């Protein structure tokens, strides 16, 4: 599906969509507590993948992770801890995304895993021990182990090596575990996990509003419109809550309270360390195009192993719309001029590139055509409906 966006400002109020990251965690913990998972949590292709795989979490199960890295990285260690023989499959870029740091740690502690990339089969019984994982590849490796290790028969330790990135997502996992009566001890080098522990489902857990997806419309407000998002917690552990501070640094007029609102103001280039909030990168890069001067995104190397090579994809998106950007292996510099020309964007089948390109149309002089726009279904199937609610003009071509 290709979409044509007619340039225009976005104005109005929306309720934040449910947090995909929080829903993955609630579903996983609920399943481990023996509870019934509500299908209402399945608001995207990724969360449906976790729902589907949790129902296949038994001997002989085939766990189709779709394109969801979270599903794979959470449930591979859980399957190992439960001693399940299962096959994991996936599609898109997921079979190419790195997994060896996790599989090596599992193998060293008893799991038998046939391959470091999908498809792979797992068997054997994981045993307690020391699990060493890098902190700068995927926080989901750590979250997956945090879910799995309380299920074992003895105490384990996770040692995190190197720089820790996306720490907020690990904190979110710890919050969910605490809500399910699972205790984790934080240490200077990582975490200690007593086991066995029992997951106990709390009364009526609720999914938070999603800062990651709300960011697209909040940035659209900074690009000349006026947008308000309700249902966002300012106390959330979601790493992308950092958006408010980053937009303020750009010079955006942002107000935070029972809702978060952003309206037009003069923006200026800044430097952004994107390591703790990588999902904000595409829409912040578009925001940088609207700013005066250069914006530099640093510590971005991990973005090259997302649903696309996001550094390359964002650079090409900006240049295809008439903007100016240049990259290094771990950074992107955007030369902001305040406006873009418009044109055609290759989404690389990446949901966040689709949404960022739609936001970019707010400062374009001519229409934006987005190829393979159906990629939004991965995380935000209602994106274009919400885009239109704010006055955006998006038509399938």
Feature tags:
single chain, 397 residues, alpha/beta, UDP-n-acetylglucosamine1-carboxyvinyl-transferase, Chain, 20 strands
What do these coordinates show?
With 397 residues, the chain is α/β, with parallel strands linked by helices. Helices cover 32% and strands 22% of the residues. The chain folds into 2 domains: 3-17 and 208-396, Enolpyruvate transferase domain (UDP-n-acetylglucosamine1-carboxyvinyl-transferase, Chain, Alpha-beta prism), CATH 3.65.10.10; 20-193, Alpha-beta prism (UDP-n-acetylglucosamine1-carboxyvinyl-transferase, Chain), CATH 3.65.10. It has 12 helices and 20 strands. The protein has a 4-stranded mixed sheet. A 4-stranded mixed sheet has the order 2-11-13-12, with helices on one face. The protein has a 4-stranded mixed sheet with strand order 3-4-6-5. The longest helix is centred in the N-terminal third of the chain and has 14 residues, at 69-82.
| Largest sheet descriptor | 4 strands, mixed
Give the beta-strand count: 20
- Low-pLDDT segments: none
The CATH homologous superfamily of the largest domain is termed Enolpyruvate transferase domain
The first-level CATH class name of the largest domain: Alpha Beta
CATH overall fold name of the largest domain: UDP-n-acetylglucosamine1-carboxyvinyl-transferase, Chain
Q: Which class of secondary structure composition applies to the elements?
A: alpha/beta
Residues in helix, %? 25-40%
Global geometry: elongated
Q: Averaging pLDDT over every residue, what do you get?
A: 96
């Amino acid at each position: 599906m290709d979409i044509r966006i007619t340039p225009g400002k976005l104005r109005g109020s929306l309720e934040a969509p449910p947090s995909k990251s929080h829903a993955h965690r609630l579903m996983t913990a609920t399943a481990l507590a023996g509870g019934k998972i509500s299908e209402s949590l399945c608001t995207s292709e990724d969360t449906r993948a976790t729902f589907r795989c949790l129902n296949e979490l038994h001997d002989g199960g085939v766990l189709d992770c779709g394109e969801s890295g979270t599903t794979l990285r959470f449930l591979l260690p859980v399957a190992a801890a439960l001693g399940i023989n299962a096959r994991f499959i996936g599609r898109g870029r997921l079979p190419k995304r790195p997994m060896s740091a996790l599989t090596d740690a599992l193998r060293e502690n008893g799991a038998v895993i046939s391959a470091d990339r999908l498809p792979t089969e797992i068997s054997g019984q994981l045993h307690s021990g020391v699990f060493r994982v890098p902190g700068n590849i995927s926080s989901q490796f750590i979250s997956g182990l945090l879910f799995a290790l309380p299920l074992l028969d003895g105490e384990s330790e996770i040692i995190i090596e190197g720089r820790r990135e996306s720490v907020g997502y690990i904190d979110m996992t710890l919050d969910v575990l605490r809500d399910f009566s699972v205790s984790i001890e934080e240490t200077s080098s990582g975490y200690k996990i007593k086991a066995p522990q029992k997951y106990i489902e709390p009364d009526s857990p609720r999914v938070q509003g999603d800062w990651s997806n709300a960011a697209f419309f909040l940035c659209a407000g900074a690009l000349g419109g006026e947008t308000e998002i309700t249902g966002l917690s300012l106390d959330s552990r979601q790493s992308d809550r950092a958006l408010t501070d980053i937009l303020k640094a750009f010079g955006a007029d942002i107000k935070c309270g029972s809702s978060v609102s952003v309206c037009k103001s003069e923006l200026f280039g800044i430097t952004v360390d994107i390591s703790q909030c990588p999902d904000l990168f595409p829409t912040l890069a578009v925001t940088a195009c609207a700013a005066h001067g250069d914006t530099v995104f640093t510590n971005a190397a991990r973005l090259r192993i997302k649903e696309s090579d996001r550094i390359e994809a964002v650079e090409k998106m900006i240049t295809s719309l008439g903007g100016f950007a240049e990259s290094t292996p771990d950074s992107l510099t955007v030369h902001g001029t305040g406006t873009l020309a418009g044109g055609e964007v290759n989404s690389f089948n990446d949901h966040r590139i689709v949404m960022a390109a739609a936001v970019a149309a707010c400062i374009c002089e001519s229409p934006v055509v987005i190829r393979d726009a159906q990629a939004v279904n991965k995380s935000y199937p209602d994106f274009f409906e919400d885009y239109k609610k704010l006055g955006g003009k998006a038509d399938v071509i």
